[in-house]
Hints:
- The chain is an alpha+beta fold.
- The protein has one domain: Alpha-Beta Complex (endopeptidase fold (from Nostoc punctiforme)).
- It is 26% helix and 18% strand.
- The strands form 2 sheets. A 6-stranded antiparallel sheet has the order 3-8-4-5-6-7, with helices on one face. The protein has a two-stranded antiparallel sheet with strand order 1-2.
- Helix 2 crosses helix 3.
- The chain is globular, with a radius of gyration of 17 Å.
- The N and C termini lie far apart (50 Å).
- Residues 148-172 are annotated as: Disordered.
Amino acid sequence: MKRLLTLLALPVLALGFSSCASQVKAKQSVSYQFRDGQTAKVVNGIAYAPKRAPLAVKKAIAAGNRLQNKPYKWGGGHARHNDSGYDCSGTVSYVLREAGLLKGSMPSSGYYNYGKKGEGDWITVYVRSGHVFMTVAGLRLDTGWGSDRSGPRWHTRTRPGKGHVMRHPAGL
């Protein structure tokens, strides 16, 4: 009986492995390079969208700006949309909701299946076990990594991206 159960479980395991294998993983660091008219710029912690950016991108940047200086709060942004602090997935959920690209909120693991696979033209979500962050018009919105968990902030410094799965909203 035990052998029969093991044999029956093999196709299920194979399906799980094949779906993970079809994800597009980042192979290099996530770095910001300003390109006039194509990327957002940040001045004194506030991001500015390129003029030609789609409306959803402009809304996403405005949402990210509202989160600046909020503290890191485990579970923040999930039970309450407007919270006193945000964790990584609460930050990404807030921005995507405000841009009209998500209903509700998701834990970081939910982003493995968000939108379309691969890097987006305007918005990319980077997810790995236990963490998610995003880029909007080339600018990274992250709650920090390593010992730096200051909360949602726009970042221009390079961050390791290897091993993260990349997803993006359809059309962006």
